[in-house]
Structure formats: structure tokens, C-alpha cells
Specification:
five-stranded parallel beta sheet; alpha/beta; binds flavin-adenine dinucleotide; six-stranded antiparallel beta sheet; FAD/NAD(P)-binding domain; 7 helices; 30% strand; binds FE2/S2 (inorganic) cluster; Rieske Iron-sulfur Protein
Amino acid sequence: MSDQPNAPAGPDLAGGIPLTSLADGAMLAGHVGDDAVLLARVGEEIFAVGATCTHYGGPLAEGIMDGAQVRCPWHHACFSLRTGDVVRTPALRPIPRWEVERRDDRIFVGKKIEPRDPELGGSPAPVAGRAKAPASVVIVGAGAAGSAAADTLRREGYTGPIILLDGDTDAPYDRPNLSKDYLAGNAPEEWIPLRSADAYREHGIELRRGPRATGIDVGAKRLTLSDGSSLSYDALLIATGATPARLPGPSGNVPRVHYLRTLADSRRIIAAASKAKTAVVIGASVIGLEVAASLRARGLEVHVVAPEQRPLERVLGPELGGFVRKVHEEHGVVFHLGRTAGTIDDRSVTLDDGTVLGAYLVVAGVGVRADLELATAAGVAEGRGVPVNECL
Ligand SMILES: Cc1cc2nc3c(=O)[nH]c(=O)nc-3n(C[C@H](O)[C@H](O)[C@H](O)COP(=O)(O)OP(=O)(O)OC[C@H]3O[C@@H](n4cnc5c(N)ncnc54)[C@H](O)[C@@H]3O)c2cc1C
Ligand code: FES
């Protein structure tokens, strides 16, 4: 993740600004010394927080204010204006705060208040008065959900052992970037990990990568792992996320067709792109379109094949879908809409209307399915998901 601050702009907030220059519900970007500071007003309350998102440095002043929260314009992380804490990922670290004083209808920003526990997303909550805590917690899946759950347990004062288990040896990492800047070649791989095993260790969270959980003995509260070992728990959180849907029929298992979910998948696509001149992307979903844009950024000729008439039409409607198409076409993407991929061989993809697209690289982005293997073993899966209550 980037630590580069935005260059401070706007007024010197330590020198004060008129109260009238900050309307209720408005934000204003300024600075205190070298720090970019965001001033925000909610009724009579005025907050001063860091103006730079701790995810990839998004300018929070250009985001959306929602009550006493600010949402980053880039990937929609949310921060509390009151505490600076992360209230919604993908950012994991809180933003700093500053003291604010009102004097003679002017606002002055004073001393900086650093977050108390930046690695856990914000201030630990008081522990007193908690319900009886489990003796140990095992979290299966170190994706965004599992990682945030481990952080939250510690932040909320849980002191027992936490094991974060993931079958992916690279986990945990910033999955959304795999189809964006990383795939486009604009983000180095050092930006991709969310946090090191050492950083987890410092907070008493044991990160175990490699073995997958393959079964659960619910009565004995024990997981079996793919390396033959087992793991006992008092409380278990299944946060196994999703796996990419495969193309229907024989095309689904053609080794040359790439699916994108993991860092290893993204590395494989980058390696194949370095040898390819043309790519066919099957699916005009968000991920398909991001892959198309990233491969265009790498200089490949890119064809997108999808059955709908406009990209993202089902989600955004025809008007915005048409706009999205135009933007991608302006960047050189060629669409084959209302079409499906028929056969895929070593060098080409043949569409259902007989069009043959020559391509060494084929990427399918045709949706995801919840990974229910473990939830099914635990007897909590139903249909294509897991029933939850209003607390989850
Ligand atoms: C390329 C790409 C781009 C995306 N871009 C965006 C975006 O811009 N904005 C957005 O909001 N969302 C985006 N998403 C979706 C977002 O990544 C997911 O919503 C998010 O990852 C879900 O988090 P999760 O923790 O529930 O699951 P996951 O991130 O899928 O994590 C689940 C983890 O569980 C592990 N696991 C599964 N089964 C087992 C097992 N049996 N034993 C051990 N470990 C197991 C997996 O290895 C995995 O690491 C994107 C997804 C992809 C793939
Ligand atoms: S830069 Fe703010 S959420 Fe990514």
C-alpha cells in the first residue's frame, strides 16, 4: 500500500478560516504544516482529519461525506470523521485527527492526534462488560472479511488466541488491485500484500498459509486440514469468499483460458500477456472490463465477448451501459456484444456467429460462486449460500 501523501493544498488551517467558509455537510481540503488535512462540518460539530486515504492515497476531499463519515472516491473505503477509524475496507489503517477550536467565528486546527492502534484500523474499544469470550478463534479465509474480522476482534478487546488460516500462500492481499493497476503494470507487487505475517504476530494473530481446511467435526470443534493435520477451535468463522464461475461446456476446462481470483492468477495473466499481441476477454462484467482496460494499458489488442447488448446493462441500465461501452471503445477495446464464445482452441476463439478471433490470451470473467465447500461440511450452507441474520 502506498504511503505517499498528497501535496498539501488549500488554506493553512492552523492560521484559521472563517466559520462561514464551511457550510453544514461540507468538506474543505487544507493543510497544517506539511500535512494535508480535511475539515468537515456536521451541524455544529467540526472535524479535522487526514485528507489522504490510507489505502492508495485517494483524495478524501473529493469523496462523499455521509453524516460523520467520509467515503474515499477511489475504492470507497470509509472513515469515521469523529475517530479517524476505518469503518469500511479496503483501507485497513485509520486516518489521523487534529484538535479543532472555534474562536470569534473562526475555525483553528491545532494539535495532531495520531491513531492509537493504526495497524488494527483504529482505537481499541474498552473491554469491560463483554459477554463471555471464546477460548480461541479460528478464521478460515484471510481475504478482506477474514482479515477484518481478526483485526476487529483485537480492536474490540478480544485477548484469546486467533488463528487466521488460508490455503493461498500469498494471502492476505489487496484482491481488487489484481485486475486494475497491478495487472496494468502500474502498481508494483510490494503494494499488493495487506499485511505481513510479522505484523499479525505483533497483535497475537497467527497467520497460517498453505494448508486448506478440508473438513469440520462440529461436535469435536475440530478442523481437518489438507496437510493431514487438524486444528481445534472454540469459535470458528468461515470466511472462504468466492471462486470464479467457469465457462459452460468443454471451454470451461481449456487450460489456456484464464480466470482471475488470486495473485497467482494475475501473475499468470501478466506472463501470458507479455507473449501475446491479442487478447479475448469473455464477459463484460466489472472484472472483465477491468481486465480489458488493463490489457489495453499493456498494449494488447483486446476483444470483449458478451451475450448482453451493453456492458454492465443489468446493473447500470442501458444508458450508463452505453456510456461504459463508449469509454472503453475510446480506449481501443473492440466489443462483440450479443455474442457468446463457442469453441476455444490453441490460437483462437470462435463465436456463436462463426466469427473467429485469433488470440493467444483468453480471460474469462463470467461471475463468481460462493465457496461453500466448508460451510456445507459444517451443515450451515443452504442452496447457493449461507443463511444469516441481521447481525451479519
Ligand atoms: C480481480 C478482482 C477485482 C475486484 N475488484 C473489486 C473492487 O474494485 N471493489 C470491490 O468492492 N470488490 C472487488 N472485488 C471483490 C472483492 O475482492 C471481494 O468482494 C472480496 O475479496 C471478498 O472478500 P472475502 O474475504 O469474503 O473473500 P475472498 O477475498 O475470496 O477471501 C477468501 C479467502 O479464503 C480462502 N479459502 C477459501 N476456502 C478455504 C479453505 N477451505 N481453507 C483455507 N482457506 C480457504 C481463499 O484462499 C481466500 O484467500 C474484486 C474481486 C476480484 C477477484
Ligand atoms: S485509495 Fe481510498 S479506498 Fe482505495
